[in-house]
Amino acid sequence: MPHHNLHLPQGTEAFYLDEAYVHRRLLRTFEDQCELWAYLPVQTPVYDFYELYRGLIDRTRESSTYRLVDRAGDLLVLRSDITLFLARQMGLVLERGDLPVRVYYSDTILRHEDAHDISKNEFYQVGAELIGPTGLDADAEIVLLLFDALDQWGATDVVIHVGHRALLAELDRSGRLAPAVAHRDWATVKQVLRDEGLTDPACERLAELYGFIGSADELTRLVSGRSDLGAGTLAALEHLLSLAAEFAALGYADRVRIDLSEVGSQAYHSGIVFQAYAPDTADAIASGGRYDGLLGHFGFDAASVGFSVMLRRLQSRTATGEHRAPTVHRPAGEDFRARFSEARRRRAEGKVVSL
Amino acid sequence: MNEPLTLALPKGRLQEQSEAYLAERGFRITFESRKLVATDESGAVRIMLVKNIDLPTYVHHGIAGLGICGTDVIHESGYEFFTLMRLPFGSTKMCLAARKDLDPASCTGRLRVATKFTRFARDYFQRNGIAAEIIRLGGSVELAPVLGLAPYIVDLVETGNTLRAHHLEVVDELARIEVVLVANPAYYKFHYRSVDSLVDTLHRGPA
User: Fold this and answer.
1) pTM over 0.90
2) Contacts with B78 from chain A: Cβ below 8 Å
3) ipTM attached to this prediction
């Protein structure tokens, strides 16, 4: 008989005591922060009809989702991506007059991860979405909310890399360009561009552009005088520069980098895309972007921009300071009533006291 | 002063060449006796020596942000990294080999292939639409055809001496294997200026 009592099945996890305490503190901090920004909570279902999401889940992600058949014979999919499940729910309940809508969530996600790949496990996501508004202010709001949450968690050394999916739209008919740019695989990028009919010098110059990471000034210098960029690319660059100017004016210049290799991991991304990086984590701790066509897929055509944070990745680096489990005080003495009275007095002072 | 970048080097075949290559470009490393971690004399790079096959795991988990490794080992790990540059040493070939006197007509049914590089072999045969039964071995793969485990092997071939010693020959060259400098993607993104500066220095050649 296999030793099932020694481990959990792949795709789920449990955490206890101090670790769970820290997790809940982080969660509460996030919820409080979102509510200060006038975002309201939403709860997505644990599973839904698979056919609704077919075509939105890419092949890599699809292979890690759990599917099951219900008693009526319908194929269901467990919640593996909260953004998708949220879009479907919002499509069901929202009406035009409700917009703009600001929501936040905190939920488990259920999907397979390789047993040896523990660093990539993402079983708990928190996030926020701004539904309805388009344009600079909405994009800035969602990134600034993420900064605010990171600051409240004590993650003040995190930087956010912002790119724009529309940079590729004109040249990614094959769907091969976005993953190659995201992996900074310049040989493949140039090959895809050549297949689109571009000359070798044009491929080189575009690859240089897609590889850019840096400040607004550096990007301005890189693109000034270039006549080889299409209207969509120029509009996306202009949007990023305006966004960077906004962040700089608000004091975030050192914590935002324009990164044109950030193109989003999902085909539904349509505008800005961003990821948050910390100095000591092996993967991005938060990611987000604009996906204006996603709600329309579920029957309610509204723009949307949002982010999700991999809370467990963040947890490993914030389990110190105010988020760590508190010191527990224990009144001395044999007399229970005296200890109870002492405990009540000290709890009133904000101390954590155990009898 | 900035924190040093972290770089994993593989013990074994590539260690000496990697250290010499770095030293020529100003990154001299001296490991104290039995120590596996050292910082180069300039303080720019903290080096950790790890087993070749484990190197992708250390980089994937961010223990080392950068690594020098063969593309065979990276492919086998299944992890995805940013490839920052190809290094001018240690290249070799991944080959399909068999006994010189093998009559292909005698191999009926699925192709039986013994290899250490199971992911590489599986992907290659799948890409080419060939049904193959892959048998994993830990080493001394050239023994498999000699002892009758499998008529074919997939293995690295440098000089071909090992194959010749066992009366084997290359049937097909599957891929050129190169030694590359890779980065954990999140590490690269956070430290991109320092990493790009290191890559520029390496590209410039001997100091």
Assistant:
1) yes
2) 114
3) 0.91
